[in-house]
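Exercise 7b. Backbone tokens:
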């Protein structure tokens, strides 16, 4: 068993998978339907089409009998279009004869997509189609799930790091399920540290006694006490006030919580799962996060890959969202391809929103989503320079739209939105006050 000082990547199957990594090809869309099938790459290359022996894409009428040939060695790939009827596309560009590329890439043939990956081992066991309410979990996320299970045996804390919308709370709930069992009544208390109003973090986390402050007419239970015999999930931990960080550390060390205005601490028994999109080591170096709390909460750590590295999940996510809002609608390979080629800084949350907007952008009577229905700025990064470069009246409307969009993506959180926009949070607050006439 690992010691609490080890990262999860140093245990379990992490090193085994690294040693056995095998570059390969994954079918992610077959005739417009989500697929997760590993295609073996022979030494002489892989020929794909409706008439090839692999049996893939035989139901795609837009795929030629001999459509393309794919060759690969040491992370380099070569694609040859075999004079197909509807063409072969690599990362959205048509292949004229032969093309070479390095690393991961997306190849479109007909209404199907294949994805070249540096390691096919996480995808060896296909994931069952997701339930209407369950999560979509691809190969890389399954690997993270395995790391979470290892972490559950290491200690009573876990740090999850990942971008906004990458599934940090989903991972925390998975940890809760592992520790307490599916359907357990053990509490799961989720706290967004970045959304706690200034000055209220101590009261909300630790609770308070009647008369502890002006207006405290009764005892108030804090989040930590509410999580007793269960799990406390601290999202965006790096945003927690440094003074409160010290008191949180004492709770973790003593397993006692002292409400505001109380003279006697109360015992608590709980697991703590923290999450952040920041590098906490850098935050410690910059003096924004307590080093002693980092040593208590920073290990073990599980890093969730962003959606742009989990291309196998995209077709399932898009299909499930369409079934939820427009069951009579489907998506084309060009739409999935357009989504897969964008970075999605807001990850799954942003993708699902843009799928909904794309559906509303479809002309009446259209039932197939194509690339043209995806907004031009959907899934793309917002460059700070484009926001701060000018405050001239001609740019005012565009600036306001960008600010409102980022605030919406971050649920109105000024601190996080300001970071994305490249502004100081006080600048953004002044802008909001001016807009509201305050």
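Sequence design result:
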């Amino acid at each position: 068993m690992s010691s609490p000082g080890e990262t999860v990547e140093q245990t379990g199957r992490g090193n085994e998978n690294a040693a056995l990594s095998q570059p390969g090809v994954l079918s992610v869309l077959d005739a417009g339907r989500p697929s997760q099938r590993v295609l073996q790459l022979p030494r002489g290359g892989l020929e794909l089409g409706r008439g090839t022996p692999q049996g893939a894409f035989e139901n795609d009428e837009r795929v030629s009998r001999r459509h393309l040939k794919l060759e690969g060695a040491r992370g380099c790939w070569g694609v040859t279009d075999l004079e197909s009827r509807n063409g072969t596309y690599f990362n959205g560009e048509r292949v004229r004869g032969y093309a070479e590329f390095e690393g991961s890439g997306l190849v479109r043939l007909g209404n199907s997509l294949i994805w070249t990956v540096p390691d096919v081992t996480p995808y060896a066991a296909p994931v069952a189609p997701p339930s209407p309410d369950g999560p979509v979990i691809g190969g890389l996320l399954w690997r993270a799930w395995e790391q979470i299970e290892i972490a559950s045996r290491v200690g009573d804390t876990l740090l999850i790091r990942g971008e906004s919308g990458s599934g940090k709370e989903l991972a925390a709930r998975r940890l809760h399920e592992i520790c307490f069992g599916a359907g357990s009544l053990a509490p799961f208390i989720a706290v967004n540290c970045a959304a706690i109003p200034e000055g209220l973090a101590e009261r909300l986390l630790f609770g308070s006694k009647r008369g502890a402050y002006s207006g405290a007419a009764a005892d108030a239970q804090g989040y930590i006490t509410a999580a007793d015999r269960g799990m406390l999930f601290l999202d965006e931990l790096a945003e927690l006030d440094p003074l409160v960080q010290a008191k949180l550390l004492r709770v973790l060390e003593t397993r006692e919580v002292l409400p505001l205005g109380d003279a006697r601490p109360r015992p608590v028994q709980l697991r703590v799962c923290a999450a952040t999109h920041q590098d906490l080591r850098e935050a410690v170096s910059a003096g924004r996060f307590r080093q002693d709390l980092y040593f208590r909460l920073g290990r073990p750590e599980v890093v969730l890959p962003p959606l742009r590295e989990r291309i196998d999940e995209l077709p399932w996510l898009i299909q499930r969202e369409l079934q939820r809002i427009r069951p009579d609608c489907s998506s084309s390979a060009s739409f999935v391809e357009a989504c897969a080629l964008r970075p999605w800084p807001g990850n799954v949350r942003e993708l699902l929103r843009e799928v909904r907007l794309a559906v509303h952008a479809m002309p009446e009577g259209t039932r197939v989503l194509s690339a043209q229905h995806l907004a031009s700025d959907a899934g793309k990064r917002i460059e700070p320079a484009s926001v701060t470069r000018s405050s001239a009246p001609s740019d005012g409307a565009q600036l306001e739209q960008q600010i409102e969009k980022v605030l919406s993506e971050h649920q109105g959180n000024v601190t996080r939105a300001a970071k994305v926009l490249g502004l100081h949070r006080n600048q953004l607050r002044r802008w909001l006050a001016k807009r509201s006439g305050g």
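Instructor comment: The radius of gyration is 25 Å. Residues 1-19, 385-394 have pLDDT under 50 and may be disordered.
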